[in-house]
Amino acid sequence: MAVQDPVDSDDAVWRQPWDVFDAGNSDWKSRCRGLISIAALVAPDEPSLAEYLRWVPALSLRAQFDEVDVRDLLQDEDLELTVLDLGAIELDDIEPYQFGFETLKGLLSALLSLGLLMCADWKADPREIRDGLERLRSYPEGMSWEWFEAAAQDYEVAMETGDRFFELLGKHSRAAGAVLVGINTEADSMALGFIPVERADAEVLRTSNDIEPIPKIG
Which InterPro entries does the annotation name (predicted)? Predict the structure, then answer.
């Protein structure tokens, strides 16, 4: 199977894995494009991740119907034929939003496995957040934590001070050369990672609802 760049190519490339589905509403395709752009932004040294995310929504749905592991389907020599086998499945119960959701799950799982993202409950202890960030491959060495103890205590006393805590966290990471970003989890949890400051003007940071710089730029 020829690998094509799903971010830069035209809609014909996107129709290829999805031509067994009703393409009447393209909102899910726009979201999938955005999520793949996020993958390229957060994991620029992992080009195969974009291709994986291009296929994982349909493969995940196929796996659910066949009760198999999606990782087994990814080993198939011809992913196009594997996805087109979905034509034998009753598709009326599949909503287009599921494609975006499956792509988001694939993105979060992959970035966690690559050590480029940390997840924590929204009520997580600030020290748990710090520990998770310091373990990331993209953690900016030399980031100052002198501000941390006072801000952490404020955060624990009143959760409404959380915005201030994360504003300081993002400010100090930026001073060390990295932008703190939050990625949507569609759950009561947070997913945080870093990108180099030179990528802070990436279009996806302005256009996607699935990622935002912390604090917001501009």
Answer: DUF6630 (IPR046582)
Cis amide prior to 213 (ω within 30 degrees) = no
Beta strands in the chain (DSSP E): 118-121, 178-183, 189-196, 211-214
Q: What is the pTM of this model?
A: 0.77
Whole-angstrom Cα distance, residue 185 to residue 192? 10
Q: Token pair of 109, please?
A: 């799982």
Judge contact between 118 and 133, C-beta under 8 A: yes
DSSP code, position 80: H
DSSP H/E element including 127: helix 126-134
Nearest CA among 103, 94, 83 for reference residue 31: 103
**Residue pair 85/20 in contact by the 8 Å Cβ criterion:** no
**CA-based R_g, the chain, Å:** 19
Cα separation of 94 and 99, whole Å?
Answer: 9
Q: pLDDT in tens for each of the 218 residues of the chain?
A: 333 333 444 443 334 444 444 444 567 778 888 999 999 999 998 888 887 787 776 666 665 655 555 455 445 544 444 444 444 444 455 566 777 888 898 899 889 989 999 998 888 889 999 999 999 999 999 999 999 998 888 776 545 556 788 999 999 999 999 999 999 998 888 999 999 999 999 999 999 999 999 988 65
CB 100 within 8 A of CB 14: no
Q: Are 159 and 139 in contact (CB under 8 A)?
A: no
SS3 197: helix
